[in-house]
Recover the amino acids of this structure.
RNA sequence: GCCGGGAUGGCGAAACAGGAAGACGCGACAGACUCAAAAUCUGUUGGGCCUUCGCGCCCGUGGGGGUUCGACUCCCCCUCCCGGCACCA
């Protein structure tokens, strides 16, 4: 039966006449839920497939990015299930985090209550999308049954020295009132609220990700299933530099200064040294020198962001002290400068102005000597004429016994030389810093540590886990961690001496939760352990992980780190958690902007493109990522109310390949909706006829409907290949549309002698269509499958396999070119020999005309494809 | 600056291993149905040319060169766009 507008007749809003998608979708969702259709357990007899989508933060409602993400994941899961895999497809909630606390401050709701409410609503939204999750595995990070294992893992890491506390300059976000990890600062701004991050000295907990720096880097080479750009971003982030550490003796005989360099080959050109103003030695050298002390003090108070920006002018001060270049034995001055950073390398550098632009700029400014020690491969340079440093490779010159060596070999030779004399050694440096995980916030995992005046830092004993978050807490955005004000939480007795002690009141970064949730999904109900190793062994690694690119160096790096830590703790036996990664593009939409009223909603712009508030023409802005602030969001609830989940899914899969940005188009949604309605009308219209008896008939014996039968087989091939090859959902759906177009052209016929045969072909084609459509639009496929008389779910149907014989064409279109230009087409038997193709092409009258007055020089024949006739004088 | 990814009709996009550029969808135009509209169905739709309207000719995948019988596809150079990193020694 057909409904108007999908709901009640009369409520039409310029919408297509439609099938009752609401009834269909709700009905099948109920059936799937009742049957627990997508529950899985380990089964060694089936190949396993772990399909994971990044679980959401329960912010209140799902957005279109979620719709796209979860639609992609669901197609993958349903496809592999139909291909005979035992598919783990779980869902959970990344439910610790700041927005819950902000809600508490703004609306007076407890973060726990706010979170639970959001989860409840978002769960119904996800269920409305018809996603095939095993809901029995649902996990919630803010649940003590989950976060107790964060604490347990933290303690294991503490035991191994992988979790430690140190005072450090940390990134502080004034808006969030908490510390941020380096990965959470983007261009000096908070990843969450875009406010400027300042530096603060605080005593903080760190996780030693640097211990795995090299492994995290080299592991990337063994991830062919990851996008290149994500691997590049991680490589950049880890920032490995291979070089050497060199000791420069002090001219006054004091302890030497160690520097790090990647250009040992330029050592003979080091004409001065520079220390970071915070360097321990800098303080000593500054003593009694007011201008140096002043410089240090000024650097200390200056904004670090400004100081470390590339555009900031280099400035420095001479300390009055000298060191000795260990190769030339020359006395060289020691300076302090703003551009040398304590955190990188040893906090001290040798300066080679001739071959390092920064040193060059500095030398020019302060009139320090410039000595050339590398000549380019071609030509020579003159130090006095240099206008900028020569940073390239070349041949060593003015370098004593090393002169004449190519710079690459020179680096090795110098390193060997330094090591032999014990004044230096080969060294590697990383840009990656340890992960600061302390957060001065309430809604997170309490760090399970107790401070005792007598015993010092004492880990909470395992039997006392979980350290529960107290419910009775006053949440404000000022005055440090809210937990610090909860006395019954803070004041405890020391587990070691039972004397009075205090709890750690910082909580863990919420990225800790997501660093291992994919492992917990394997045994989500395990009560006595973080994981059940046998189950983890069965399911891990994740075969396909799907999520946004924004986690390229956050979550995806932390998860790789945690997996390795857990491997070294003997909990898992894999190195890499995610074999294949698909980073979906953003969902974007055009924006409207009024000169007076700023961003406008589509409803706030009239048909003539003017602002409804002031009548000025709005500027149609660029296509941008959907966001509330730009007023260009589409609410998934509205979308599903108007068109249903199948249309929402189909559109987000059809409009663009998954890894590219998706540009929102209301007409595109209409198109997807029209297509599904067409399918519905077609199958519904034929259902009665197709349910009548069919007679099995071989393709060879088929007298009618051969083209449709072939088209169905072609479609199987195309859709299967598109899904197997990088999940090209858009072209797979296009192939389904072509099949529907063919079905639409097909006449079931009236002559009784052909009717049965035509019915057989039509039934095959329709069933093929429904089965192939099932991963994309599962509700409609189920509904129509049932109308054709099936009692089992289409989700249990086997994915079809095309027949190469059927696809084999008897006749083939061969293109004929003359000098590479298309001149004729020939229909020839598919098995025509090369010689026959050549002869037929040369004989063709249209080709003949083009050959007039020319000599055939060559004939290129590509069997089953084309003939290209090459002539003289073209 | 370094690294990664891009650029194809009016629009979103196809073209998998070098072999008919533009599948499929949107939009537009025309027709059928209708009193009419909507919906639906059918056709046309890269640009240009024409006393020949054709199975026609020329041009066409950011620009310039090259390899090849043949290039969206491979190579070199350049422009622009998106993303990451960046005083990291």
């Amino acid at each position: 039966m057909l409904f108007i507008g999908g709901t009640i007749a009369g409520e039409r809003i310029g919408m297509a006449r439609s099938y009752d998608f609401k009834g269909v979708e709700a009905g099948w969702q109920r059936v799937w839920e009742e049957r627990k259709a997508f529950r899985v357990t380990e089964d060694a007899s089936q190949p396993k497939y772990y399909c994971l989508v990044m679980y959401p933060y329960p912010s209140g409602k799902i957005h279109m990015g979620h719709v796209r993400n979860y639609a992609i994941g669901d197609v993958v899961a349903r496809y592999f299930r139909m291909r005979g895999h035992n598919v783990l497809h779980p869902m959970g909630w990344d439910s610790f985090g700041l927005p819950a606390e902000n809600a508490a401050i703004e609306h007076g709701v407890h973060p726990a209550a706010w979170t639970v409410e959001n989860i409840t609503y978002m769960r119904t939204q996800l269920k409305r999308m018809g996603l095939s999750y095993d809901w029995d595995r649902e996990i919630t990070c803010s649940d003590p049954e989950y976060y107790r294992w964060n604490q347990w893992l933290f303690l294991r890491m503490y035991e191994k020295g992988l979790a430690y506390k140190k005072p450090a300059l940390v990134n502080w976000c004034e808006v969030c009132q908490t510390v941020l990890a380096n990965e959470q600062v983007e261009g000096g701004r908070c990843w969450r609220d875009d406010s400027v991050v300042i530096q603060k000295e605080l005593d903080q907990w760190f996780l030693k990700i640097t211990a795995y720096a090299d492994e995290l880097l080299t592991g990337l080479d063994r991830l062919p299933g990851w996008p290149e750009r994500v691997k590049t971003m991680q490589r950049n982030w880890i920032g490995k530099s291979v070089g050497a550490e060199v000791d420069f003796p002090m001219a006054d005989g004091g302890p030497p200064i160690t520097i790090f360099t990647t250009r040992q080959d330029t050592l003979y050109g080091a004409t001065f040294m520079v220390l970071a103003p915070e360097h321990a030695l800098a303080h000593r050298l500054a003593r009694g020198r007011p201008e140096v002390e002043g410089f240090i003090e000024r650097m200390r108070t200056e904004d670090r962001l400004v100081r470390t920006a590339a555009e900031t002018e280099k400035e420095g001060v001479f300390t009055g002290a000298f060191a000795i270049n260990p190769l030339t034995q020359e006395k060289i001055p020691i300076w302090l400068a703003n551009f040398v950073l304590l955190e990188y390398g040893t906090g001290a550098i040798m300066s080679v102005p001739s071959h390092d632009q920064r040193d060059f700029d500095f030398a020019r400014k302060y009139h320090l000597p410039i000595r050339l020690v590398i000549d380019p491969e071609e030509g020579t340079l003159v130090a006095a004429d240099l206008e900028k440093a020569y940073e390239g490779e070349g041949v060593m010159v003015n370098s004593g016994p090393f002169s004449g060596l190519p710079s690459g070999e020179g680096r090795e030779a110098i390193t060997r030389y330094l090591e032999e004399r014990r004044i230096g050694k080969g060294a590697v440096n990383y840009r990656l810093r340890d992960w600061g995980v302390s957060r001065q916030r309430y809604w997170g995992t309490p760090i399970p540590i107790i401070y005792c005046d007598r015993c010092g830092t004492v880990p909470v004993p395992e039997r006392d886990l979980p350290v529960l978050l107290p419910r009775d807490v006053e949440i404000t955005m000022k005055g440090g961690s809210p937990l610090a004000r909860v006395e019954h939480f803070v004041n405890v007795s020391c587990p070691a001496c039972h004397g009075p002690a205090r709890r750690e009141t910082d909580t863990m970064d919420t990225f800790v939760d997501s660093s291992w949730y994919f492992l917990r999904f394997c045994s989500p109900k395990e009560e006595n352990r973080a994981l059940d190793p046998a189950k983890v062994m069965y399911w891990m690694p994740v075969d396909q992980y799907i999520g946004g690119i924004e986690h390229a160096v956050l979550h995806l790096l932390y998860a790789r780190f945690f997996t390795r830590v857990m491997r070294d703790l003997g909990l898992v036996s894999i190195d890499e958690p995610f074999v294949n990664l698909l980073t979906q593009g953003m969902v974007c939409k055009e924006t409207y902007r009024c000169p007076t009223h700023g961003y406008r909603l589509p409803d706030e712009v009239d048909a003539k493109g003017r602002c409804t508030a002031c009548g000025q023409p709005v500027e149609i802005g660029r296509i941008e990522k959907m966001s509330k602030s730009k007023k260009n969001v589409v609410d998934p609830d509205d979308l599903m109310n108007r068109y249903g989940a199948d249309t929402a899914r189909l559109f987000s899969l059809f409009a663009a390949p998954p890894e590219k940005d998706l540009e929102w188009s209301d007409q595109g949604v209409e198109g997807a909706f029209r297509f599904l309605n067409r399918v519905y009308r077609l199958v519904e219209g034929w259902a009665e006829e197709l349910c009548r008896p069919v007679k099995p008939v071989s393709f060879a014996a088929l007298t009618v409907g051969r083209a449709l039968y072939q088209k169905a087989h072609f479609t199987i091939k195309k859709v299967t290949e598109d899904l197997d090859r990088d999940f090209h959902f858009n072209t797979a759906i296009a192939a389904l549309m072509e099949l529907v177009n063919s079905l639409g052209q097909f006449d079931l016929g009236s002559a009784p002698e052909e009717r049965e045969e035509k019915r057989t072909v039509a039934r095959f084609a329709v069933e093929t269509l429904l089965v192939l459509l099932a991963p994309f639009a599962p509700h409609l496929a189920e509904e129509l499958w049932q109308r054709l008389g099936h009692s089992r779910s289409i989700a249990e149907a086997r994915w079809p396999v095309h027949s190469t014989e059927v696809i084999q064409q008897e006749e083939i279109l061969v293109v004929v070119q003359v000098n590479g230009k298309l001149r004729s087409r020939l229909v020839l038997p598919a098995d025509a020999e090369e010689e026959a193709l050549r002869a037929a092409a040369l004989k063709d009258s249209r080709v003949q005309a083009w050959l007039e007055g020319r000599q055939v020089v060559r004939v290129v024949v590509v069997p089953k494809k084309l003939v290209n006739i090459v002539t003289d004088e073209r």
Summary: Residues 666-690 of chain A form the longest helix (25 residues). Residues 1-16 of chain A have pLDDT under 50 and may be disordered. Residues 834 and 855 of chain A are 21 Å apart (CA to CA). DSSP finds 27 helices and 37 strands in chain A.
